[in-house]
Amino acid sequence: MKLHHYLLIPFLAILFSGCDQRSKAQKIVDESIAAHGGAAFENSLIEFDFREIHYTIFKTPTAFEYIREFSDSTGSVKDVLNNSGFTRMVNGVKIDTLTQERIGAFSRSVNSVAYFAFLPYGLNDEAAVKSYLGETKINGKKYEMVKVTFVPEGGGEHFEDEFLYWFGKEDHLMDFMAYSYHTDGGGVRMREVSSVAEFGGIRFQNYLNLKPQDKETPVEKMQELYLAGKLEKLSEINLENIKVTPLTD
User: Fold this and answer.
1) Has residue 247 been placed in a domain?
2) Each residue of 178-194: pLDDT tens digit?
């Protein structure tokens, strides 16, 4: 049967549009992950110190293991969070008396540090829902904004938290982020990159941690407050003694 040209054109349009079904938000995130290290994230064992605690991080699309080690009044503590759950060891002995509440608190603490240290890589977790909010400009640089929320299934205990990311339109780097949270009374924060370093092909970023006066401020309002100089510096987020060990097959 002969296919007339006026039927062929829309058919080809449908065919080629189906070659890449990623949303605009997904494309922006993928470009940023590539700019920050790409495949090196999941082919490396990453170690660093954060606030005098040593972390060892491994993460792929299907498996992860986060370890933190420190000393306190009980002795040498080693926390391990992976696909199988959470384990705490003190002086080499596994602690079996932890309540579910304590396990949850320790797990969230370890996961939080690993999540932020690995950004933007973690934005492709299955539970993440990405939405494109348009273009903007901060300090003369053009950015594309992506909001990330999480579905209840797989999104963790605090799936209601919201995150907003600013990605450079030209260089795809994540220079700013804001997020709301509901633990410990809740609040909202904005982080601005203060310094960067590259190890093993991965870009690591330190941040200034900023907060507004009103903890109920929507994440979408944080840029306006930042540009108006109405955010207070709360702390600095600095990773130290970074080490990246490539993993071989």
Assistant:
1) no
2) 999 887 778 999 999 99
Residue ranges with strand state E in the chain: 44-50, 53-59, 64-72, 75-82, 85-90, 93-94, 128-138, 141-150, 162-168, 174-181, 187-199, 202-211, 232-237, 240-246
- Give the pLDDT mean for 146-152: 88
Beta-bridge partners for 21:
none
Q: Which two tokens stand for residue 113?
A: 């540090």
Q: Which two tokens stand for residue 109?
A: 């603490």
Q: Is residue 248 part of a domain?
A: no
Which pTM was predicted?
A: 0.85
Give the CB-side neighbour count of residue 62, counting CA atoms within 13 A: 0
Domain span holding position 45: 24-242
Q: Give the chain's domain count.
A: 1
Q: How far apart are CA 166 and CA 207, in angstroms?
A: 14
- Could you tell me the pLDDT band of residue 145, with boundaries at 50, 70 and 90? very high
Torsion angle of alpha carbons 154, 156, 162, 163, nearest 10°?
Answer: -80
Q: Does 12 fall in a domain? A: no
In a domain, 63, yes or no: yes
Q: In CATH, what number is assigned to the domain containing residue 164? A: 2.50.20
Give CA–CA dist 167/173, Å, rounded. Answer: 5
Instruction: State residue 246 phi and psi, 5-degree precision.
Output: -65, 140
